[in-house]
Design goal:
5 helices; binds heme C; alpha+beta; 6 strands; single chain
Amino acid sequence: MKKRWVLALGSALLSSAVMAAPFGEEADIKYSQDLWSALSSAGLVGADAIMSTPYTGQHPHGAVLDTIDAKVSVGGVNDLVIIKRNYGGEGVSKQAVADNPSKYLQAVTVMYKRKGFDADNQDWFWVKYKPDGSLHVNPKGMQLAGAVAKGAKAGCIACHTAAPGGDMVFNHDRYAKGM
Ligand code: HEC
């Protein structure tokens, strides 16, 4: 009986190793750390980060948000990044966030244009950071970095596919093809 258990467990482990997830793998986590360093050097995350005027957000991003478009270099390649800070918690308001952003910051959601990464989805690399640069996880415990969640009905990609202009960006169409 015991032996069969071990065999079943072994084959389960084997099949999960063969079927690599589209996100949250070691390489994604490493890349998300390099991206965080680049954002940090550019003054776009961390204490005293450059911020824009907070605005009222909508689910699943926070109650109050601020969004910044910039360009940063990761691994010697300079490309587009969109940083959305998600604020929430008791007493949150646009004014409260403007006065004390770090008190209400809950997540930093980022889209980075990573050429050749995921041609099906405009080569966006998706990350949901905690304010300290570590990663948020989904209910299955998978770290939210990479093609989140390619092929799934929910997650960054599934929802952002609905953005106008076919560029997966809701706020504008500057990055849409032909613009
Ligand atoms: C259920 C839908 C939904 C999901 C899931 C979602 N987003 Fe968004 N996201 C939006 C909407 C709507 C906007 C634009 C409105 C706003 O500013 O909140 C947006 C805006 C953004 C922006 C600013 C650029 C833009 O598209 O306007 C970034 C960056 C972003 N999301 C990252 C992420 C990341 C990373 C994830 C996954 C961890 C994610 N989003 C999951 C709906 C979603």
